[in-house]
């Protein structure tokens, strides 16, 4: 799969050829996780609607839920104004975090909302 040239030309990748992917739950708006994508991962996601990312530690592509069953069905993908981040709106099955939590942002609240 090749990323459409009109999309690829708008991306501002980091030194490793990656862009940030922010994953938001459809319906609740809750941020579930942040991951990385390269052109191949973004192309696969756009074509299949299955969230595909690039693992910096393993140096390979992975489809969310392929081994865990905790899948993400992608409803929409938006590019931010700078071209360095995409926002995926997904339906999440089970936990999005590798710990099994629903969101990767359940663990540590550094600043509580004002009352």
TrEMBL record:
Annotated Phosphoribosyl-AMP cyclohydrolase domain residues: 33-105
Location(s) in or outside the cell: Cytoplasm
Keyword Endoplasmic reticulum among record annotations: no
Cofactor names: Zn(2+); Mg(2+)
GO annotation (BP), single: L-histidine biosynthetic process
Pathway assigned to this chain's UniProt record: Amino-acid biosynthesis; L-histidine biosynthesis; L-histidine from 5-phospho-alpha-D-ribose 1-diphosphate: step 2/9; Amino-acid biosynthesis; L-histidine biosynthesis; L-histidine from 5-phospho-alpha-D-ribose 1-diphosphate: step 3/9
Catalytic activity annotation: 1-(5-phospho-beta-D-ribosyl)-ATP + H2O = 1-(5-phospho-beta-D-ribosyl)-5'-AMP + diphosphate + H(+); 1-(5-phospho-beta-D-ribosyl)-5'-AMP + H2O = 1-(5-phospho-beta-D-ribosyl)-5-[(5-phospho-beta-D-ribosylamino)methylideneamino]imidazole-4-carboxamide
Main subcellular location: cytoplasm
Keyword terms: Amino-acid biosynthesis, Cytoplasm, Histidine biosynthesis, Hydrolase, Magnesium, Metal-binding, Zinc
Matching Gene3D superfamilies: Phosphoribosyl-AMP cyclohydrolase
Residues that bind Zn(2+): 81, 97, 104
Free-text remark on how the cofactor is bound: Binds 1 zinc ion per subunit. Binds 1 Mg(2+) ion per subunit.
EC numbers, comma separated: 3.5.4.19
GO cellular component, as recorded: cytoplasm
Domain of life of the organism encoding this protein: Bacteria
Pfam families xrefs: PRA-CH (PF01502)
NCBIfam families noted in UniProt: PRK00051.1 (NF000768)
UniProt name for this protein: Phosphoribosyl-AMP cyclohydrolase
Gene: hisI
């Amino acid at each position: 799969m090749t990323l459409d040239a009109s999309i690829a030309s708008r991306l501002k990748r980091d030194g490793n050829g990656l862009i940030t992917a922010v994953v938001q739950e459809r319906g609740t708006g809750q941020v579930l996780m942040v991951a990385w994508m390269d052109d191949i991962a973004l192309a696969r996601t756009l074509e299949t609607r299955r969230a595909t990312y690039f693992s910096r530690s393993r140096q390979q592509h992975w489809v969310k839920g392929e081994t865990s069953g905790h899948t993400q069905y992608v409803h929409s993908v938006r590019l931010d104004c700078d071209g360095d981040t995409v926002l995926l709106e997904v339906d999440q099955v089970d936990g999005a975090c590798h710990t099994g939590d629903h969101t990767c942002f359940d663990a540590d609240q550094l600043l509580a909302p004002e009352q």
